[in-house]
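Justification of resources, computational component.

The compute hours requested in this renewal are based largely on the per-chain cost of generating structure records like the one below. Each record pairs the submitted sequence with a full C-alpha cell output. That output is archived, and it is also reused by downstream analysis tasks.
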Amino acid sequence: MKIPSGGDGNGDEAAKEALELRDSVLDFAEAELDRKVARAVGDGAARRCRVKILQVRKFETQVVAGTNFRLDFTAGCEGEGEEGAAKLRCREVVVYQPLPYACRQPQPEDNPRCLSVRGNMEEKCGAE
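The structure output for this chain reads:
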C-alpha cells in the first residue's frame, strides 16, 4: 500500500526510508489478512476478491528488542464482487520487526524485514 509522502521533493533519505518501512509493514499486514480470509473461505467461488487496506487510522511504533508497529485500519475487498462487500475494522494489530542481527536469513525469502504479526489477527478484526 503506497501512501503519498506529501514531501517537498528534497529527497530526505531518513524520511524516504521511514515511508518505505511503513509501506512494507502495511503491505505485510494486508497480505497476512488476505491469507487469513483465504483460509477461512477458500480460494474457490466464494472468494472473488483480494483483501486490501482501504484506510489507515493509526500507525504507531514502539521500540522494544526490535520494533512493534501498532495498526488500526479498515480493510475491504478489491476485485470482482467488491461492490457491497463487507468491510473489516482491525484494531491494535501488532506487526513486529526484530533487530537486524536476528534477521539474517528471512523466512520466507519474500519477507526481507522478518516481519510477523503478534497475537491473533482474527480477534482484532471484525465487521465494520
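The mean pLDDT is 81. The chain has one domain: 13-127.
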